[in-house]
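Problem 12. The chain below contains 719 residues. Write out its predicted structure in token notation.
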Amino acid sequence: MRENKLLSLLNQMTLDEKIAQLMQLATPFFKGAKEQGQITGPMAEMGVTDDIIQNSGSVLGASGAQEIINIQLTHMEENRLGIPLLFMSDIVHGFKTIFPVPLAIGCSWDLELTEKSAEIAAREASVSGVHVTFAPMVDLVRDPRWGRVMESTGEDPYLNSEFARAFVRGFQGEELTTDVERVAACVKHFAAYGAPEGGRDYNTVDMSERELRENYLPAYQAALEEGCEMVMTAFNSVFGIPATGNKRLMRQLLREEMGFDGVLISDWGAVKEMIPHGVAENEKEAAYKAISAGVDIEMMTTGYVNHLKELVEEKMVDQSIIDEAVLRILQLKEKLGLFENPYRGANVELESEVIMSAAHRKAARELAAKSSVLLKNESILPLKKEQKVALIGPFAESGDILGPWSWLGSRDEAVTMKEGILSKTSRLTVAKGCDIETITDAQTEEALKAASDADVILLALGEDSNMSGEAGCRANIQLPSAQLQLIRHLKSLDKPMVAVLFNGRPLDLHGVLDQTHAVLEAWYPGTEGGNAVADLLYGDVNPSGRLTMSFPYHVGQVPVYYNHFNTGRPQGAPDAQERYVSQYLDIPNMPLLPFGFGLSYTTFTYSDLKLSSATMTEEQTLDISITVTNDGPVAGEEVVQLYIRDHSGEVIRPVKELKDFQKISLDPGETADITFTLSENQLRYHHSDLQYKSDPGTFTVFIGRNSQDTMEQTFRLEK
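Solution.
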């Protein structure tokens, strides 16, 4: 259907039909749904009529090929103009085959495998009838108290941008119309949702426009450049106005400046939430502000269907604004091929063959292993298969390792840690030891008994998945005290102890890192988590994950991140006083574990850092080379990280900024010469007048295994 046919269709629609097209409703509202009519609580109070349902444009949360075919079939029969529905869902880190949470995926530093994970999620979702996924989330995060850090890839704008591109490529492929195994991506949450005050979900965000552009917008821009079809608004305020009603943010910045011409959707209920935010007196004013800001689809509130017609009649809203929103939705439906094939990729016969296939599970296992980060190892790992192992902790036999936003993932189908270890050795005893937040004397006694005859104690610890994700914010980011108490009890046996952590945020690891001999951060590793952890513990896979979010020494440091600014009185400067510098009196300034950190079962040495020139110009790039050698006993992967520092900017510049990286694989004794090329545009930043440019002057380039352990040399940019 060409553009003129879409315009013809638009002209045939009544105003009521157009407005209903802007309404997104949850699955139970629709005929043909398995849960049809099961509308309770706030949904029952929405007052949605049959006419609205028959003319609505999209469905939230439907799944399963047969259900979606049933809903679409009924809708096409009842919709006057035969306009198909869009089916949208939260396919964040897997559909049925669950991959690690995005924060873990970030720690893989593996863009190719990340893209593959999104491609697999799209394949499973599309064969089940889904058209759009509400992913990727590209919010930059610096505060681990915020539960949704698990849904981001970390604290660095460059790395987040690269992952945003990989996710969009994986979800959408090259051609959505003909490739029915892909889904449209919806980047979220625009904008700066990752910086809520106090690390508390839905809370106020207040930052300068320069900070927004410098650190928070790049990943959104990268997703849009990759062709992302949709954008979701954030719950928070930006420039003092909630994002969903923020005309400057959405029409000027997103649409005009960043060039986005796709569909803009609110988050769940965000239009009506402008009332408690205090910028709309009632639902009518909220609807007015949202449509004026350019929000095309209102998710799960009724401001548009209740008030847009009235606003048009009162000449407060020009009908052309509604037409433009409807046309964008029709264009997306056309791009997905829904007018020709309303059922698109939904296929009942293929569904069972595609979903949770052996190939998909293999990829999930590989990514889970690459996403895990070895934080400590006092020559305990890898384990030997003849060792007697006691597996103790609340996650020893738990399937709660999928993490938040694993919507259709099954804990029963997840490979537990016990199952993974048993695939390597039969010399295993298991005890729960404690629950997530409680411990009893009987559990302690059972744990001590199980460990008494073991050569090694494996601790399976972490956060219940409800302690992370949306609305899963925590002020105390240590492990629950019951689990710390379990560690202390087992420490009395004086045996080697290995802690494996299942969690969705960086933790304060006091009581864990200092009390055990090895620590593996497994995050929420997904469906194949138990197998992946066992592969790592027994050395069948060498750990290669590197942190993309700093682990704080104490929650009092938060936010703590590697690319911070210096101060006029920096701690550790050559001429610094002892007291009157920027520091804490009771804890270090630096995080417990820095950005980019991660250990291996082998050792990599760096040498011979060279620059091709001592100067760079706008036309002449700079080649930076370094030699990396695997001088350890086994093959391994290393993430070689390149950072820069601009020593004198028009505004303060970070002490380090990641600009590039290479993930390399080396056999024992093998050496590789790594070269990076740095160009002038990588030295640009937003000045106080928001111009994006570089300044001449001195720069330091750093290369190393993480943001702290680096080699360095200086050069000058000349103009």
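Discussion. The longest strand covers residues 636-646. Students who got a different answer should revisit the alignment rule from Section 12.3.
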